[in-house]
Write a structure and sequence with these properties.
Shape: globular
Largest sheet: 4 strands, antiparallel
Distance between the termini: 29 Å
Number of strands: 7
Order of helices and strands: EEEEEEE
C-alpha cells in the first residue's frame, strides 16, 4: 500500500490514491508535473514532496484522495 493510479480523458487528468492499511504509507514514483498543479477533489489531503525527478506521497492511514491536474 498505497494504491496510486492516474487516469486521463477529454482533457481531464486525475490522480487517485487509496490506503486501506491501518498505518500511514508512502508512495514514490517519477512524475513530470509539479505538486502545486494538483487540486484535491475528494478525500483526505496527502503530503506531496519532490525528490529530484520523483514525486513522493505520504498517505494517512485508511484514507483516499482524488486529485485533478490544473492546467
Amino acid at each position: 500500500y498505497p494504491f496510486v493510479y492516474a487516469r486521463a480523458s477529454g482533457g481531464n487528468e486525475l490522480l487517485v490514491v487509496f490506503n486501506p492499511a491501518a498505518r500511514p504509507s508512502v508512495a514514490q514514483f517519477p512524475l513530470a508535473v509539479t505538486d502545486s498543479d494538483w487540486q484535491l477533489l475528494a478525500g483526505t489531503a496527502v503530503r506531496f514532496t519532490r525528490q529530484e525527478s520523483e514525486l513522493r506521497l505520504e498517505v494517512p492511514a485508511q484514507s483516499y484522495a482524488i486529485y485533478r491536474l490544473r492546467k
